[in-house]
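Open question from group meeting: does this chain pack into something compact, or does most of it stay loose? Before anyone orders reagents, we agreed to write out a predicted structure and look at it together. Recording both the input and the output here so the notebook holds the full record.
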Amino acid sequence: MEKEENILGYEKIGKLMRKFSIPCIISLLVNSLYNIVDQIFIGWGVGYLGNGATNVVFPFTMIALACALMFGDGSSAFLSLKLGEKKQKEAGKGVGNGIFLSVIVSLVLCTIGLLFLPQITNIFGCTDALREFALSYGYVIVLGLPFMIIGTTLNSIIRADGNPKYAMMSMVSGAILNIILDPIFIFVLHMGVRGAAIATVISQIVTAVMNVLYIKRFKSITIDREAIKPEAKVCGKVSMLGISSFITQMSFVFVMAVENNLLSKYGAESEYGAEIPITVLGIVMKISQILNSIIVGIAAGSQPIIGYNYGAQKYDRVKQTLKNVLGLSVIVSTVAFILFQTIPDKLIAIFGSGNDTYIKFACLSFRTYLMFCIFNGVQIPSGIFFQAIGKSSKSAILSLSRQIIFLIPAMIILSKIFGIMGVLYAGPVADGLAFAIALTLLIIEVKHLGKIKINDNSLIDDTSTDSIVKNHTVITISREYGSGGRYIGRLIADKLGIKLYDKDFIEKLAEETGLSPEYIGENEQKRSKLDNFND
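C-alpha cells returned:
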C-alpha cells in the first residue's frame, strides 16, 4: 500500500513525459538500430546481397520481438493500472508472470529457429542468390533470441517501475558495443554477415544481463517465487494488455513475408530484378521503423502516466497527456515525411553503394511507399493509448488495421494491376485508411472520457440536487461527541432536499423490531469480541 500518492498522479504532464518518453525513445531507437547498424556495415563490407539476406532473416527476429513486447508492454500496463488502483501485490504478480512467459517463449522460438531456419527463410522470400548469406547470418541470430526476448521484456517493465534511465542505459550499452564489434568482426576478422550476427548477439547478452540484475531493485513491487509462479488468469490478462504491441510486430512479419514474395515475383519481371527490390524495400521499412520508434517511444513513455491516471479516475490528466503525445508525434512524422520526399538518395547511400537501377528504385520506394507516413503520428499513438487504458480490443483493431486489414490486400491487388509499383502504392493506401479508423475511435473515446468526468463531479455541483434525489442517495456522517455533526447533517439535508434520520432512525427501528428505543440506543455502536470473527 502506498503511503503517498504516486508522482504520476500529480506531477506536471510535460515533466513526466520528459522523464519517461525520452529514455523510452532512446531505448526503442537503439533496438531498431541493432539491425540497421548491421546493414550499414554489411552493405559496405559484403554488398547489397548481404543486406538482402538479413532482410529475409529479419521477420523471424520480429516474431521474437513481438512476443517480448507483448509480455513487456502487457506487464507494464498491468503494473501501472494496478498501482493506480493501489493493488501492489497484484501488480507484482502480473510482472512476475510476464517474466515467466518471456523465458518459456524465448526457448521455444530458439529451438524452432535452429531446427527449421532454411524453411523459415524460404517463407520470407529467400532467393538462391541470398540463401548462403541468410543461413550464415540467421543461425547465429537465432541462438541470441532468448537474450533479446528476456532483455526487451524487462526493459519495458523497468520503465514502468519508474526507472526509464536504467532501461535506456542497458539498451545504449548494448548498442554501443554492437557498433564497436561490427567493424571488428566484418573488416578486421573478415567474418562477413556471420561476424555481424555475432556482434549483435554479444550486445544483446550484455543488455539482458543488465536488465536481469535490476529485478531485485524494483521500487514499486517485489518479485519473489510466488510472483513468478504462473497463473492462467494473470498470464492471460498480461498477454491481452500487450496484444496491441504483439499484433503490431506480427503484422509487420506477415507484411514482410507477403511483400518479399511479391517483390521477388514482380521484380524478376521488371528492370530491377528480384534482389534489388527485396534489399531496397527492406532498408526503406527499417528506416521508417526509426520514425515509428520515436513515435512509439513518445506514446509508450506516456503509457504509465495514462494508465495510472485512468485507474485513479483523473481523466483531465489522461486527456492532457494524450494531447501532448499526439502533438509531438505529428511533428516527428512531418519532419520524417519531408526527409523521405527530399533526400531519399542520401538516405539509401548510408547503406553502401549501388548502381543507377538500385538508386532509382530506392528513391521510388521512399517517395511512394512512405507518402502518407505523416498519418503515423496519430495512428500509432492511438493504439498505445487504448492499450494503456486497458481497452485491448480497440488497441488490437488499430494494430491490425494498417498492416493486416489494408496493407496486405492492397499489395496483392495493386501488384496484379501495376506490377512492382503496385507494392509501393499499397503503402499510402493503407496509411490513409488506418488513419481514418484511428481518428474515429479516438474522438469517440475522448468524448466518453468527458462524460465520465462530468458524472464524477455531479455531487460537487450543488445545482444537481434533482438527480441526487432521484437516485435515492444515502449520505452517512461519521462524527465525534461535540463535533456538530447533527447540525451539519441538517444543513446538507435541507440543501439537497432529502430526509434526515438521527434519533428518528432509532424510533423507526424500534417500531419495526419491537425492541425498546433505550436498548437500540445502548447497543447500536457496540461490538463484543466475538463479533470480530464475523468480519
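Observations to bring back to the group:
The first helix runs from residue 13 to 45.
The radius of gyration is 29 Å.
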